[in-house]
Write a structure and sequence with these properties.
The protein is α+β, with helices and mostly antiparallel strands. Helices cover about 35% and strands about 10% of the residues. It has 9 helices and 5 strands, in the order ααααααβββαββαα. The radius of gyration is 20 Å and the shape is globular.
Length: about 325
């Protein structure tokens, strides 16, 4: 899966938080840091304005597959079979489809198949879509043997406040702890393995988790492991303390830029090929749109510092 929206990019499963786990002040998550790096205005729309966005079949399928793999580890080790995992799909979907916006998911055509949100998500009907989720779940078993794994945590909230006051928080798909105390951070990806040029972007989220775990546990993760279920491939990485320190400074720089933007209400659009898949083009100056007035009151209520006038009722 805060004062920032816990809505991941379209191709990534959505995490939700309950009231008792809500953060105490504005915080930075891997998804929102990536948003700001991609386009500051997108960050504003998602985090400050909280504008609604369309659900996509691929994103919802990602949530479904993550739920199945999480619940798989509720079973005794010997019962964690492909067949058992497939039986978890229907009940997980029965719960998921009750959420708002799900009824329209198969009522018409999905987003354009060429978009990241539609990768593998342009199946014509529900049966084909559920079958594709089953295929991804089955692929997982070619990458790991769940009968030999006992996770320390699943869908676990990790958070830390850095010395400068920056609150980092995010949700780890799976955390494994060896008898020696060594940590392995595992993330399930329902898309394909990235090209070499995009590996750093894929590892950004994992380094974020590694940094939080290092700051909270004093242990550098021995392995960051991304499982790509579409391709049946694995990407692993082992960070070190020096790298995590550099990454921490990167996050602090991103946060400083976010705070400046919030303070002034100045969030610039960054036009790129990713704009083709953005829900907010009608409000974006890069496409002739006009953003709504900056919601200074909402920002202040959420704990942000802003120099813009705030109406006190």
């Amino acid at each position: 899966m805060t004062a920032v929206l816990q809505t991941d990019p379209p191709a990534t499963p959505v995490r939700t938080t309950s009231a008792d786990t809500a953060p105490r002040r504005p915080s930075l998550s891997p998804s929102r840091a990536a948003d700001f790096k991609t386009c500051p205005l997108l960050y504003r729309f998602r985090t400050i304005d909280r504008l609604p966005e369309r659900k996509s079949r691929a994103a919802v399928r990602g949530t479904l597959v993550h739920t199945v793999l999480e619940r798989l580890y509720d079973l005794p080790a010997a019962e964690r079979t492909v067949e058992a995992a497939r039986t978890l799909i229907e009940p997980a979907w029965a719960e998921l489809r009750e959420e708002p916006g799900m009824a329209e998911l198969f009522a018409g055509p999905d987003v354009e198949p060429s978009s990241p949100a539609a990768e593998g998500g342009d199946e014509d009907g529900l049966d084909a879509w559920l079958a594709s989720a089953g295929t991804l779940v089955e692929t997982y078993f070619s990458l790991e043997d769940p009968t030999r794994i006992e996770p320390h945590g699943r869908e676990e909230l990790v958070e830390v406040t850095l010395p400068d006051g920056l609150l980092l928080r995010g949700f780890v798909d799976r955390l494994d702890v060896a008898p020696t105390g060594a940590l392995r951070v595992v993330d399930y990806k329902t898309g394909g393995v990235p090209r070499e040029a995009f590996e750093a972007k894929a590892l950004f989220q994992m380094k974020f988790y590694a940094l939080v775990l290092w700051r909270t546990r004093g242990v550098v993760a021995a392995q960051l492991k991304l499982l790509y279920l579409k391709d049946g491939d694995v990407l692993t990485y082992s960070p070190d303390e020096a790298e995590l320190l550099r990454f921490e400074r990167t996050l602090q720089a991103i946060w400083a830029a976010i705070e400046r933007a919030v303070s002034t209400g100045d969030f610039r659009p960054n036009k790129s090929r990713l704009c083709s898949w953005c829900d907010h083009q009608a409000l974006c100056p890069s496409f002739g749109g006009t953003p709504p007035p900056f919601p200074a009151e909402a920002a202040a209520a959420a704990g942000w510092r802003t120099t813009l006038p705030v109406t006190v009722v």
